[in-house]
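Now for one record.
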Amino acid sequence: MAEHPLPDPALARTAAISIFQAGVAAADPYQAVLRCLSSNDQRLSIALNLSESAPTRTAAWPKIHVLAFGKAACAMAKAAQERIPAHSLAAPAIAVTNYENVAAVPGIEVIGAGHPLPDSAGLAAAQRCAAHIALAQAGELMLVLVSGGGSALLPYPAVGISLEDKIATTQLLLASGATINDINCVRKHLSQLKGGGLARLALPADLHALILSDVLGDDLSSIASGHTVADASTYHDAIALLTAKNLWDKIPFSVQQHLRLGQLGNIPETPKADDAAFINNGYTLIGSNTLSLHASLTAAAERGYDAKLYSQHLCGEAKTVAEQWVKDAKQLLATGIKQPTALLAGGETTVTVTGTGLGGRNQELALAFAIAAQQHGLSGAWTFLSGGTDGRDGPTDAAGGVVDHHTLARLAAAGADPHALLANNDAYHALALAQDLLITGATGTNVADLQILLLYP
């Protein structure tokens, strides 16, 4: 029989976290790769989608080179190694992941690197990967396993740009409230591997990518900055974006110079769809925010909630999104609900940083929701969770936050001003004081964010 939760804060918090964890589990990278690959002694078959009757790409590749990068790299590489015929595997496979997700995997060279900001270890890893890719020959397969975070983890700046200059540019974009697509547009034009550069480097070998998407809408050219797919954006686009964000005069001169030379045609553009790099190039999308969101909806229904989809593309400034969601929830309650209700969303909000505090988009969204709930008089018992499926929200050890109708009272009891903390972009310390941080540890996957609002009649 389905569970029917009481409007008790502790029970509601447990329910919200359980529903969130169901979404994370649906993006398990190890299982996703195992579902996609199969082999006999001579041939490897790669499913082209996740349906039971999916067509496959099958060949007797004499050598299969494996390169994994992203937050799920270790688990994905381990699964691929188990499926590929041993005599075909060109050892060792390489897996580059963020430090929190580093795990020893026999037969795989695991490299830790910086995220969300790239570091020198990531640069060394990118150079190591480039050398690995160059070993692949015609008739062989380069199997690339891509997951969220891969863009920052493999920083290989274009000639003439230092890693420090690229990091400075990334920091400016992150603080400006730029979307992930905006950031990737710029990064692809400052890199030797992003924006299809890896695919070009892999020539003349065949290439296939298994992709775990952390991008809304699953735009392949945006996932980890699209190392293996064509890039439609241009140097002109990157310059226009930086200008619109009032960052052009703030970015390093070497970046300005490189982008100008590219716009003038003095530096080759990122490879477009008609490039030779994509003739023997394929991909399979093995996980996404949409798949995880539907798993969370199922989990909410199984716990006795009337599970409803609020948004499968939640985006925009976190504070604005929070206020609108509160208004929508208040309107729903005004119409009357007869059973506990769960409103779920998937997406990725943004934060325009103007303060000096600590936090991330999920923490800011959670704190802003609690404040807006009080301002707009959201009545009754409610619980709101916003969390990153990777277990890390911004430069913190939290995945996000879980707030309820008692959050502001707990902050008041601690002598804290939630409005001042939010204005300073200090959601982390606000939620810590309220004991409302969502701490999961690194999950080993990344399919953007999930949000859960529980309402009670």
Q: What stands out?
A: Residues 28-156+191-233+270-287 form a domain with the Rossmann fold fold (CATH 3.40.50.10180).
